[in-house]
Amino acid sequence: MYQILITLLIFIIVALPIGNYLYKITVNKKTCFDPFFDKVDSFIFKILKIDKSDMDWKQYSLTLLLVNACIVIVGYLILRTQSFKLFNPNRIGSMEESLSFNTIISFMTNTNLQHYSGESGLSYFSQMFVITMMMFTSAATGYAACVAMIRGILGKKMGNFYVDFIKIITRFLVPTSIIVGILLVSQGVPQSLNNNIIIKTIEGKSQVIASGPVAALESIKHLGTNGGGFFGANSSTPFENPNIASNIIELISMMILPTSCIIIFGKMANDKSKETRLKNDSKYTGIINSDKSRLVLIGKEGRTIFIAMAFLFLIGLGICYFNESNGVNGTTLSGITHSVGNMEGKELRFGISQSSLFTAVTTSFTTGTVNNMHDTLTPLGGMIPLFNMMLNVIFGGAGVGLMNMLIYAILAVFICGLMIGKTPEYLGKKIEGNEMKLAALSIIIHPLLILGFTALAVSVNDGLNGISNPGFHGLSQILYEYSSSAANNGSGFEGLKDNSLFWNISCGLVMFFGRYLSIIIQLAIAGSLSKKVDVNETIGTLKTDNFTFSFIIVIVVYIFSALTFLPVLALGPIAEWLTL
Question: What is the model's pTM?
Answer without folding.
Answer: 0.92
